[in-house]
Write a structure and sequence with these properties.
alpha/beta, 19-stranded parallel β-sheet, 9-stranded mixed β-sheet, 9 helices, 20% helix
C-alpha cells in the first residue's frame, strides 16, 4: 500500500445526544466510538491521523493525546469545509487521504483497504466513494453510477430529483483520494445548494467536470457505515456490537447459556470450553482462560481468570483480581487487586482486597481482608493450604502462614506462623437461668403497662 493519512471528521455539535460528553466519546462496549474507528484504521498503519474538531474540542484533545493531530473547524460550513481544515496539517504530504467520520465507528479495516486499493487500480479514479444499499434509503445522499462502478453524479437527498431518489445506492460519506487531488478539488467546490454549505460529495462532480472519473466501492454490510446521532442509535450500535461479539465467542468454542443476556467489553478475551451462564457482564480488561465457568449474575472487570476456574454466581471481580488455575470464588465474593492461588477457594460472602492467597487455601464465609485505614491500603498474605474460618477479619498488613488455621470469628491483626492456630475471641460469659428470669420480669412489666 502507498502511504496514506486519515482525516476523521468530528466537529459536529451532537445536539441530539443531549449530553455534556462529546458525541464521538460516548462508549460502545466500554470504548469511545472514536477509538473503535481509530483502531480499525490503525490496522493499516496510517502515516498520519488528523481529527477535525469543533464544539467540545478540549474533550477530544484530552482524549486523543498524542495519537492524532487536531484541526479546528469554526464556523462549521459543511463536510467539504471540514476536510479543508486538515490541509495545513498535511502540508507537503504526497500520499493518499482517507476521509472517515468519528460517529461512524464500525468501518472495517478491509473496507478501508478496498477503497485505497481501488484508488490505485488501472483506471486511477480521482476519488473513491464508499457506497451502501440500505433497506430504507431514507434521507441519504445518492451515488449515481454505471455498471462498472464509475460515478456519473453525487447528489444530496434534499437536492435530488425523483429519478435520483429512486436510486438505491447511497453515499456513506467516506472517501479516498490522493491528497493533492482532494485539496485541489475542494478548493473549487461551491455552496450553491439548499443549505448554503460546502459538500464533500461535490468533489466528485468537480472531478467529472474536469473530465476525470470517480469510482464507488460498495460494502456488503450496511451496518458497517451506520452513523450514531442519538441515544437510541447508540443503544442500537451497542446491541449490534454485542451480538457480533457473542457470535464470535461461541464460534471460538465458548458456551453461552443465554447469549442475549451476556455483555462483553471491547477487549474481553474468552478461551475455549468456557461456560458463561445468564446475566454476566464483562467490563474492560477481562481475560478468561480455557475451561473456566462463569456463573450467573457475575461482574468481571480488569481481572484474569485462569484455566478451569469457577466464578459466582453473584461474584464481582474488580481490577487486579487474578484467579490461578482451578481456583474458585462463589456467591457474593468480591476480589480487588488480589491473587487467588491454584486450587484455592473462597466459596461465599467474602471480600479479598489487596491480598495474596496461596495455593490450596480455604477462605471461609464472611471473611474480610481489612485493607484500608482511611488513608492507605495494606496487603494481606495468606500462605498455601491455610484455613481461614468463617466470619474472620484479617487486619492488614498481616501474614497468615502455610497450613495455619484461623478460628472462626477471629479478628487477626498480627502475623500467624506456619502451622499455627490463631483464635481471637472474647471469653464467653455463662449465667444459667438468667434469660428465663429476664423474660419473666419483662413480661410482667409489659402486662402492668397495658392495664
Amino acid at each position: 500500500m502507498r502511504e496514506f493519512a486519515t482525516i476523521i471528521l468530528a466537529a459536529g455539535k451532537g445536539t441530539r445526544m443531549k449530553s455534556d460528553l462529546h458525541k464521538v466519546l460516548h462508549p460502545i462496549a466500554g470504548r469511545p466510538m472514536l477509538d473503535h474507528l481509530m483502531a480499525s484504521a490503525a490496522e493499516l498503519a496510517p502515516a498520519k491521523t488528523v481529527v477535525v474538531v469543533g464544539s467540545g474540542r478540549e474533550q477530544l484533545e484530552a482524549a486523543l493525546g498524542d495519537r492524532a493531530e487536531t484541526s479546528l473547524q469554526e464556523p462549521q460550513l459543511g463536510t467539504g469545509h471540514a476536510v479543508q481544515q486538515a490541509q495545513a496539517s498535511l502540508e507537503g504530504f504526497a500520499g493518499d487521504v482517507l476521509i472517515l467520520y468519528g460517529d461512524v465507528p464500525f468501518v472495517r479495516a478491509q473496507t478501508m483497504r478496498r477503497m485505497l486499493d481501488r484508488l490505485h487500480a488501472e483506471d486511477k479514479p480521482a476519488v473513491v466513494v464508499l457506497g451502501f444499499e440500505p433497506a430504507d434509503a431514507l434521507q441519504y445522499g445518492r451515488v449515481i453510477a454505471d455498471a462498472d462502478g464509475r460515478i456519473t453524479k453525487m447528489v444530496e437527498h434534499k437536492d435530488a430529483d425523483d429519478a435520483e431518489r429512486a436510486c438505491r445506492l447511497c453515499n456513506s460519506g467516506l472517501m479516498a483520494a490522493r491528497a493533492a487531488d482532494m485539496f485541489d478539488l475542494l478548493a473549487r467546490v461551491g455552496n450553491d445548494n439548499s443549505q448554503g454549505e460546502y459538500y464533500l460529495v461535490d468533489v466528485v462532480n468537480v472531478a467529472n467536470a474536469d473530465g476525470r472519473h470517480s469510482a464507488v466501492v460498495v460494502t456488503d454490510d450496511p451496518d458497517e457505515v451506520a452513523g450514531i446521532n442519538s441515544r437510541a442509535e447508540l443503544a442500537r450500535a451497542e446491541a449490534q456490537w454485542q451480538e457480533l461479539k457473542r457470535e464470535e465467542a461461541m464460534a471460538n468454542g465458548a458456551s453461552l447459556r443465554a447469549p442475549e443476556t451476556v455483555f462483553f467489553s471491547w477487549d474481553t478475551e474468552i478461551g475455549r470450553d468456557v461456560t458463561i451462564e445468564p446475566n454476566v457482564v464483562f467490563g474492560p480488561g477481562a481475560k478468561v482462560a480455557d475451561g473456566a465457568t462463569i456463573r450467573a449474575f457475575s461482574h468481571i472487570e480488569g481481572a484474569e481468570i485462569g484455566p478451569g476456574c469457577e466464578v459466582g454466581p453473584f461474584a464481582r471481580l474488580r481490577p487486579g483480581a487474578v484467579m490461578e488455575k482451578g481456583s474458585k470464588v462463589g456467591n457474593f465474593v468480591e476480589m480487588k487487586k488480589a491473587v487467588l492461588g491454584e486450587g484455592a477457594k473462597a466459596n461465599h460472602l467474602t471480600y479479598l482486597g489487596d491480598a495474596e492467597v496461596g495455593p490450596g487455601a480455604n477462605i471461609g464465609a464472611g471473611t474480610i481482608t481489612c485493607n484500608y485505614d482511611g488513608y492507605f491500603k495494606y496487603k494481606t498474605v495468606i500462605g498455601p493450604r491455610a484455613f481461614i474460618g468463617s466470619n474472620s477479619a484479617l487486619i492488614a498488613p498481616v501474614k497468615i502462614g502455610a497450613d495455619a488455621i484461623v478460628a472462626a470469628g477471629s479478628a487477626v491483626s498480627r502475623d500467624v506462623a506456619d502451622g499455627e492456630l490463631r483464635m481471637v475471641r472474647g471469653e464467653q460469659l455463662v449465667k444459667p437461668g438468667w434469660a428465663d428470669r429476664f423474660h419473666d420480669t419483662m413480661k410482667k412489666k409489659k402486662a402492668e403497662k397495658g392495664k
